[in-house]
Amino acid sequence: xxxxxxxxxxxxxxxTAKVDFNGNxxxxxxxxxxxxxxxxxxxxxxCAIEVMEHEKAQELLELFADLDALQ
Amino acid sequence: MEIREVIDxxxxxxxxxxKIMEVCGTHxxxxxxxxxxxxxxxxxxxxSGPGCPVCVTPTAYIDKCIEYASMDGYxxxxxxxxxxxxxxxxSLSEAKGRGAANIRxxxxxxxxxxxxxxxxxxxxxxxxxxxxxxxxxxxLMLQEAKRRGIAxxxxxxxxxxxxxxxxxxxQNQDDIDGFICPGHVSVITGSSIYEDLSEEYGKPFVVTGxxxxxxxASLYRIVKQIEEGKGQTExxxxxxxxxxxxxxxxxxxxxxxxxxxxMWRGLGVIEDSGLYLSDxxxxxDGGSRDLFADMELPxxxxxxxxxxxxxxxxxCPMFGTACTPMKPFGPCMVSSEGAxxxxxxxxx
Lengths: 71, 348
What we know:
The complex is a heterodimer of chains A (about 70) and B (about 350).
Chain A: E1 5-12, E2 16-21, E3 24-29, E4 40-44, E5 47-52, H1 56-70
Antiparallel strand pairs in A: 1-2, 1-4, 2-3, 4-5
Chain B: H1 3-12, E1 18-24, H2 25-33, E2 44-51, H3 59-69, E3 74-78, H4 92-97, E4 103-105, H5 111-118, E5 123-130, H6 135-148, E6 153-160, H7 162-172, E7 178-181, H8 183-189, H9 195-201, E8 205-207, H10 212-227, E9 233-235, H11 247-256, E10 257-264, E11 268-277, H12 303-306, H13 339-347
Parallel strand pairs in B: 1-2, 1-7, 3-4, 3-5, 5-6, 7-8, 8-9
Antiparallel strand pairs in B: 6-11, 10-11
Helix pairs in contact in B: 1-10, 2-13, 6-11
């Protein structure tokens, strides 16, 4: 139920954005965040709920850097 | 630090037996998909929490939805995973088969705006189920409906908040040693919301994402904290979760809803764990405040124990025999994110 899927913003419109999920383009609401074209956003129930700061590979590098920082 | 060191640490752990709860059904699914249990010590037991809003929906709620789907001039809009949740006599799926034809599957609640404007004579009733992750989407849609002066939309809400349920679990099931916090709930609420819990109960609460690496890293931190005698909130999903969450989404929740008691199937009523439409949006409420009645769980069904982690799904006498995803008896078998449904699909 709480699944949220990351997709890439390809066009910004008034209160929605076109988001590309591996070639499947969907209109999502941007009422909760203000994304920019090219950014990855997490989409849940037709709503972009957060901008993902990094792509997956970079994210996982940061994850292990965080583990080091917490030691 | 590298993934190999994390796995080595978790595999060679030989301290006291630990119970770690993943609160969210999406994490349960990831744990199976990645085979996490085979990578960690037998002394670390992973248990699935109540983190599927579909599974904890009481029967009175389903009955109310079926009532709307059977009425002329109404159309019920729902996410697909609600279709098999049992009501007193029927699920939505069974009711549809028996002629309650006015049911439409939705991808997003925003579809109601367009439908309601196109067909002013029809009332669109949204089965608004979810946690903090989903509540802002329904809220945004209602703000827009109000702005446009649309009157033919109703919400039947079964919206719940995770934090009161976590307090309930900590108070009623004190043998859980640490928690993997629900990742997408945390996107909205922020990671700092767990700090009161870790302080009050002295247990680790770690926010993390849904990749195998995220889950292993969170387990590493939880076990490490326990070994060091700590009980802190940590955020390992900084890519999506900010300390204070999504401020706009929290403002929508504040504007559209107020909190009240809610019925959790298998747990009972938990004070202040429900979100109901506030006075300003009361005209959109489809009668959500008195949906507490819940059919007793079928005899032999262990769902109440499964969602607090007392037993694993396969320890229920009905699991895989009298209760399967095709014919679910208990709520945890119903949804694709319910603990029993996930175990069934991955064990069989």
